[in-house]
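Complex record, two chains
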Amino acid sequence: MTQPVYVGLDMGASRTKVVVIDRHGALLGHAVKKSGIDFAATAAHCLDTSLELASADRSDIAAAVATGYGRNNVAFVTENSKTEIGCHAKGCYHSFPAAVTIIDIGGQDNKVIKLDAEGRRDSFKMNRKCAAGTGAFLEEMSSRLDIPLNEMNNLARQATEMIKLGSYCTVFSATEVLENIRHGKPVADIIKGIFYSMIQRVLEMDSLTEKVVLSGGVVAHNPYLVEMAEELIGRPVLIPQFPQFTGALGAALYAREAAEKG
Amino acid sequence: MAAEQQPQRKKIEATGQMLKIMSDYFYDLNDAADSTTRKVAWCTSVGPAELLRAMGFAVHFPENHAAMLGATRMATDLIPEANTIGYSPDICSYLTADIGAYLKEVSPLAKAYPGIEAPPRPDVLVYNTNQCRDVQDWFSWYAKEFQVPCVGITSPKNFTDVSDILVDDVTRQIEALIPTLEEISGQKLDLLRLRETVSLSRECTELWRQVLETAAAAPAPLSFFDGTIHMGPAVVLRGTRQAVDYYRQLLGELKQRIADGVGAVDGEKHRIYWEGMPVWGRLRQHSELFAGLQASVLVSTYCSSWIFPDFDANQPIRSMAKAYLSLFIVRSDEYKEKYIKGMLEKFQIDGIIYHDAKTCPCNSNSRYGMPQRLEQQTGIPSLVISGDLNDLRCVSDEQTRTNVEAFIEQLEERK
């Protein structure tokens, strides 16, 4: 392959994502892996996998930008790193070029970002130092209930009622879950309540504009959460083609911009 | 890996003189505590220090000591000591750190000033609740511990205008303190000496105002982080000649920086207002974080809170009452918003950082919709960062870094 490619790496607290795009912004390859403790090895693995999918190799990289918590721990990037807030904004605007509110739900944090019609940020908010509304909350509940994450969506759909969890705190919520189990409440109703609690915590963070985009790994793997969000917001939401890769795509778009500027 | 810009730290030459007068102050306090003739008063930072000085007390400010505990990163290990005796981790971390230090018999003074082991033992504690109720609880604990009197002013709160009724109230409360203080000090209040002290306080705070206002220049010669260090004399030496002389020197240096076009931050691109307390244990990191992004945090409500234009030697007690009531923290949001709007304009601010300090609700102005209201009125964007003044358990460095970097990216997009 001889055409230049642009690489975006999103090293999140939970997962590392890499995206390879061409000069038109088309997605050529992507990869995801648990971030683990060896950030450099994880990043290299994701890079090589996504380059292989793109039929490219490292010599084809015209520019690479990193984002996410490990953004300053990666060797192969060529440009200044960008924050995940900036990259999610860029990635979402690429898919939906309009004034939008972006809700990104990640493994360890979530963000609400407001963009104007030109894609410039009007404001952003991150969750406070708390797991409420993040993937970590869902993982903790999955572990407490001893139900794999990938089964929770289907179980929630079987609910006939919803058990509401009242607490901000993950530990307190877990206690509420156990209390409901003790009282013989159906597990499906409890899981529906867990999803409700999660999306509610996120929606409490800020007001929403007309168009809402949902992105992030939790959104990608939990379609039930999206349905519930739409129900609560009262209108359909926009979902990028690859919600988990939105930040990495934004980083790749920044890389392309940097290369074009020279 | 893309290299982050490494900011160059710029030393303020006057710092040496500040360290000397602060050292003299602490040794004098220590001597007073050891002496059989002098008396020591503990005072809240915007309490009636002028009255105490005029009556011959050596004045210790526990808030200053607590800030030192924060800046030396001793606080986080000491706060749990106070938690275990019933003082919640959710209340003022100045209080919990300071009481924790007393319980553990440690003090940053011992390391900084050989020969000093601890803050001076008080003969009386004098508070003003214009800042919060916690100062009264804090001082009451020590009063019981040392078996000494604790007296003070219960301030009106959340008012917009400093009306005569309020000034009358606080004036009477200050006057009511005098007999107790005379009895403890063993001397009658000398009105001439009080006038002189109030006059020196006025001069000190006027110079401090001029120092802070040098930051209106572009580039700003002084940062908020510099200000938090150099405000020491304005807090603990208000009403003394040393503080006045020091701020003259500092002002001269900053004026020279303006003349030479020297900014506190190289290549200043963004001008930031800081609302709320500093994170004492992260002063250097935050200073470097912003400087690395060519963002100058150049003005704050916090440092500006020690400007008291109302001090008037002709009406010493009444003007003290007025000055203590004029404090930003004790006012309504209506006043605060008007004040901040004026500052944004005067200092040509591009963005505001609100520090939501977990244990200091009175100094966290982001909780009642102020950022949204001010942004709507001025169009100046803002960011709220979660943290604390002293308790580093409430601080996430990575969250702070990501938020600040994203905020500066947002400002870049608007340039």
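Note: Chain B has a mean pLDDT of 95.
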